[in-house]
Amino acid sequence: MEKSKFIPKEISWLSFNARVLQEAENRDVPIIQRIRFLGIFNSNLEEYFRIRVATLYQLSSLKKKAKQIIGYDPKRVLKTIKSTVLEQSKIFEKIYNEIIGELAARKIFIINENQLNDRQKEYVNNYFNRKVHNRLIPFMLNSIRCRPVLKDKSIYLVVKMERTDSGKKPKYSLIEIPTAYLSRFLILPSTDGKKYIIFLDDVIRFSLNSVFSMFGFNRYSAYSIKLTRDCEIDVDQDFSESMIKKISKSLRKRKKGAAVRFMYDAQMPEDMLDFIITKLKMTTRETFMPGGRYHNLMDLRDFPNIGPDDWEYEKLPPIPHRDLAGRMRILSVIRKKDIMLYYPYNSFDVFIDMLREAAMDPKVDSIKITIYRAAKRSSVLNALINAVKNGKRVTVIVELQARFDEEANINWANKLREEGVFVHYGVPGLKVHSKLCLITRREKNTLAHYAAVATGNFNEDTAKIYCDHCLLTSNPKITTEVYRLFDYLESMYKLKKFNNLIVSPFDMRETLVRLIDNEISRALKKEKAAITIKLNNLVDPQIIKKLYEASSAGVPVRIIARAMFSLKPGEEGMSENIQAISIVDRFLEHSRIFVFHNGGEELYFISSADFMQRNLDKRVEVICPIYDKQLQSELQTLLDLQWHDNVKSRNLKSSQLNEYIRDNGKQELRSQYAMYQYLLELNTKKETEETSRNRKKPEK
Q: Which phi and psi angles does 588 have, rounded to 5°?
């Protein structure tokens, strides 16, 4: 990958996380949401180190060969990552302290163990004895011979214990903070109209004398540490061994993965830091990162709101879909026309209701679905289990290698199989990332198919905060090919050619190139040409080069990208016809939409796939055409609203400065709220039209 033409994807990702940090800094964002954006920033960073940084460390051991594989020197990128993350951490601390100050001005105080009054001390002591004490298992570091194994994603206090009236050497202990069982934040009793919150870390610090009372120490000091591990799992594709056993074995290895980041309180005394480093047998300081008093601030995502409602985003009730509101039979509506659901603006309950309807419908023969990430208490999978109990044949393709959901998916696979569901694990060597559901029903002596093709998971939890689309259709052009793809996933026979769906790893890359080439050809003939792309990540070198080629031919290319973005837009002689923006707001932009002008006969697609090598070559993904003109118009409206967003959009340039796009002369347009209003008006218009028609009906 030529350095001058591409931004390393790992660096571009840090630029995305900086946009999240901008939301935390933005005073127009409600204050509790700003705190939660700090939590999202930390959560993102944690996964980034566990996967992307871990991969770079692995590649760096390959030396020159690594550059041939990824196109740039991983060691150089790792240095840039470390300096960038340290700089972002300083910005984080500044924003955090500013927010703490703003909360204090509103009479809400975050205090530590040294700031408790007598009433609060009694409250903390009682809480510790009731809830915390039995969750603590201290490791006495001086006496244990083996190296302590720190858990990934856990925080620990390194405790130094002394007797000030003796010359004995201090003792050290290690305590895991039990955030898996208890909230990170304890709300304390109010005083004089003031409200107080304390971290669980400081509850334990306050109670150290109680923890170690048997030893007779009279002075304690405690500092936090945290280890982030390499969490990539390695599963070979020899299917002679049970896939579940392989994944389970790899998950056990993950718990002892190599350290990729060691965070410690920068205020920790040097002798104490040296002691714990020696005890943990950490031989290199490349992964060391000094931090503040608290780590794992991803927990800020769950920061309690003890203020008024307007300290959070206002509620946006889900909009009933105009064609489904109040109707009992969803399949009968889909039989007549295509439906597009827009999450989270429309409720995910529509999809669940469709499954429940299919589960009870005596004419439904079978239901097939792909599951990549399911909700913890999945109504989707429970509806499928109910369908089995009603005599339907249910097939679920469970992807066991969905990162960080492997264990949950194994548990679901076992439960589904116990309930009589036919469970398959996809295709050797390929992740099944496509989001497909197929309902087959007996109608007039034939089998009719109903399909759902989505850009995001069939997951009711994420559907509340992720912007995704789900097409519900009975169009045989789509449903027949969805049926054919399920046949392949279940049997792994030779795949037949698709004429409507674009499926990776079979023809997606080639088809995308052909679609771009079509626009290039038209532009070279001086005909109108245009490409609009909305996705999460654009890092595939071949696709980027093809877009550069389109730009050079005069094709205007508009890109809306959320996260990783290796393309350099607006570069003279290379990409001057490419413009790119990114939107970070209250909902996570997750949908993929592709539009090609095609000589005025525009081609519209939705997809589960980003433009990454893994999506195009190593996964089963689907790009689905949208044929319905009304739905095309809706998608175009969505894209136009986002493109003209002048509140939450940032300009994506090679400088990666994340400058907000502001049209001071124009009315403010915040695309997510504008989209909500647009769909609300569509529904209201439909209701008005139906009311008007009913009034005109003659009395019988």
A: -85, 120
Q: Where are the beta strands (DSSP E) in 273-391?
A: 288-291, 339-343, 364-371
Q: Per-residue pLDDT tens for 402-418?
A: 565 677 778 888 889 99
The pTM for the full model equals 0.90
Domains and CATH numbers, the chain: 1-106 (1.20.58.310), 122-315 (3.30.1840.10), 330-500 (3.30.870.10), 503-671 (3.30.870.10)
Give which of 305, 448, 468, 278 is closest to 372, Cα–Cα: 468
The C-alpha atoms of residue 549 and residue 68 are separated, in whole angstroms, by 23
Q: Where in the sequence numbering do the catalytic residues fall?
A: 433
Residues 6 or more apart whose Cβ sits within 8 Å of residue 101? none
Cα–Cα distances in Å, from 204 out to 53, 179, 526? 32, 12, 71
118-139 residue pLDDT tens: 999 999 999 999 999 999 989 8
Write the DSSP string, 470-513: EEEE--HHHHHHHHHHHHHHHH--PPPPPSSSEEETTTHHHHHH
Distance of CA 119 to the CA centre of its chain: 42
SS3 195: strand
Q: Which residue has the tokens 């109903």?
A: 450
Nearest to 229 by CA among 199, 248, 252: 252
Distance between CA atoms of 632 and 622, rounded to whole angstroms? Answer: 18
Tokens linked to 90: 């300083």
